[in-house]
From TrEMBL:
Protein keywords: Hydrolase, Metalloprotease, Protease, Signal, Zinc
Occurrences of domain Peptidase M16 N-terminal (ranges): 36-159
Superkingdom, taxonomy of origin: Bacteria
Signal sequence interval, chain numbering: 1-20
Protein name: M16 family metallopeptidase
Amino acid sequence: MKKRFLSFALLALVGSAATAQKVEFEEFDLDNGLHVILHQDNTAPLVVTSVMYDVGGKDGDRERTGFAHFFEHLLFEGSENIERGEFMKIIPANGGRFNANTSQDRTYYYEIFPSNKLELGLWLESERMLHPVIDQVGVDTQNEVVKEERRQSYDNRPYGQILSAIGSNLFDVHPYKDENIGKMEHLDAATLEEFNAYFDKYYVPNNAVLIVAGDIDIDDTKDMVEEYFGAVKKGPEVVRNFPKEQPLTETRKATVYDKNIQIPAIIAAYRLPGQATRDAYVLDMISTYLSGGKSSVLTKKIVDEQQQALAVQAVNLGQVDYNIFALFALPQGDVTLETLLSEMDEEIVKMQNELISERDYQKLQNQFESQFVSRNASVEGIASSLATYYLLYGDVNLINNQIDIYRSITRDEIRDVAKKYLSPNQRVEIEYLPKKDDQ
């Protein structure tokens, strides 16, 4: 009885925290099309300056893959007013930290500074947009950096080729079929003119959103944003017309070899509607139900009770055009990959024919409430969410009301969406095997 009371108390606490934590923000556009979102939080003397560009691995010539990821590195090289190599020294020298990352859909740069360095953060990001130096020295330097990253994170890392294996077999015509990091031969063959043309097309103010969040004065920040970004020239509108994938109507099988592994894996991947659709939200809940935590259905059954797998996972990878829903498992001992796939399918069939229990449903709701609170618990997280919801979802208010979508999902909806999308004839089954010397 005491444990039950504590669980109800915790649920009440999480629920009240999620309700109370509304994120206030203000939006406006500069004349050059740069969208700006400001969030004021004076509880700590920190400020985040960040820019998210609407460019990712899917963009550009398919004979020049990896450009967006390459620019993630290249735009730290320097500018007309920042000496080569100084960009990454200035930030820590002023008490800040920084990072950048690239997905198939966007590129994100951010700095976190003491709030008295706000102007410095804005200047740095404006220099990246207004005065970058894109020359052969920088291209050659970052080419080696990217090659080393590929060796460490993809080529020589156990199971590092999984996402590539899924993308290349799940997509036929959409650029999601290509690796986000790109092919090294494409980067080697690219000319300086091609790099400059890519920058001019995508790294323009009207293809970006600027976020300033933290210990700021709204009016002063608006003035500084205008001062540092107002002079950036508007670029041509980016027009995308990616080819559409035909639905999968029969099981597609593939075999992929990895020289870095000893234990094989089984993967079942589905191509699904993009992350902003309601069904994608339901699939988030389905993936969490299947493998979100030690007490999840697949982990408890296949790993703990039956001891058939060393690891099992279901993931719903959110993307703008198509999501990827994937099941993954590593066998234990002599258990076959076919057995693991059958065991995972058994749980999906149950979801398709029966409602999950009320207890499991409430557990899911608790998990998503907790995730919601965590995302909005730091200025850094809020800045990233504001940029993401604006650029990739088209609705900044999701930072406050996305949780309401999850709350509104019913057990019947979970059953119906599982039935709609997660059938064997709608997927790619990949045997991911150790590579032998003669292969």
